[in-house]
Design a protein that fits this description.
This protein is of the alpha/beta class. The chain is built from 13 helices and twelve strands. Helix 4 packs parallel to helix 10 and helix 5 packs across helix 9. The protein is globular.
Length: 389
Amino acid sequence: MQASRRISTILGGGSDGWDVFNKARQMIAAGIPVTELTIGEHDIRTAAPILQDMHRSALDGHTGYAAIPGVTALREAVAARVQERTGVPTRKENVMITPGGQSALFAAHVAACDPGDRALYLDPFYATYPGTLRGASAEPVCIQTHAEDAFQPRSADIAAQAKGAKSLLINTPNNPTGVVYSRATLEGIAEVCRDNDLWLISDEVYDTQVWEGEHLSPRALPGMAERTLVVGSMSKSHAMTGSRCGWLIGPEDVIGHAINLATHTTYGVPGFIQDAAVFALDQGPAFEEEIAAPFRRRRAIAQNVLAGQNAVSLVPAQGAMYLMLDVRNTGMTGEDFAYALLEEHHIAMMPGESFGKAAAGHLRVAMTIADDEFEKALRTLCAFAESKT
């Protein structure tokens, strides 16, 4: 017996992009110290008061089946947060709570696309994007952005692929590049979506990590609320990655259908986790800034280190917990550079090629270790790059 094509072709016949990460973990398992700058995992853990509230809720008995759309208090809290941050009227009926942002991403594409529909996404991309689209039985169509544009998408490039497509997936602040899409970029994207009757699926899990400019949800642009599905999560904003609590925002009728999907797949999110998420959101923007502060600080460290050399250049680091470094001056691919850096200096970073063709010759650096270790790793990287030029 064979597995279905839907599941056996999720990777599209290639790598999942995590080869360098896996090798680093193998080295660590063998007792070799490795400085890991690979995944977007906070070096702080979920705050104790959030965990205490989760514990209280569990002890109080919220351990049975929870409401599948999400508990009312959390749906209302998310709706209020979204409305306050974007200005778009949002009610709990526009919100479905999901087991993390990844589940919301999958549900959004199932809601937007029928089997075989063309689903557009941008390169560079988060490593799970094309597999998520295949898992939803859509046909992934990749549109390259360009390093010379600081990876801001060109609306003309999207329009060239939009005919007959059903959806477009974007991510700002962006993983892996750290770029925040400008208002002009988002207005161009919105125009393409309106002109071609596309669903816009907007991954906004890094909306609290903006270092330059502003985060603009495309749902707030004219004519976009009715055709935009927004993916959000507690993972990055509140350092709750393991709690798996996210949400999908969209028109009420579509959210109703998505709730039916959840009933037949995930069957919701544990109630005690949802209660802790309500508690976390109640801490307000000051708490979210506290979670974001280490990445803002490390970005400044990186800018200072990189200003003193010429071998490595920094893609504008405007948001999210990542840096995108251009190492093409070394004459090496990003993959070759990442493997060599790991072998010679035991520093693990993700090659740009893990995130698509557009980021070839680049590295994605997660700013997720202590400041002094982070600075040391960057200085070692720069010296290594200098030796290769």
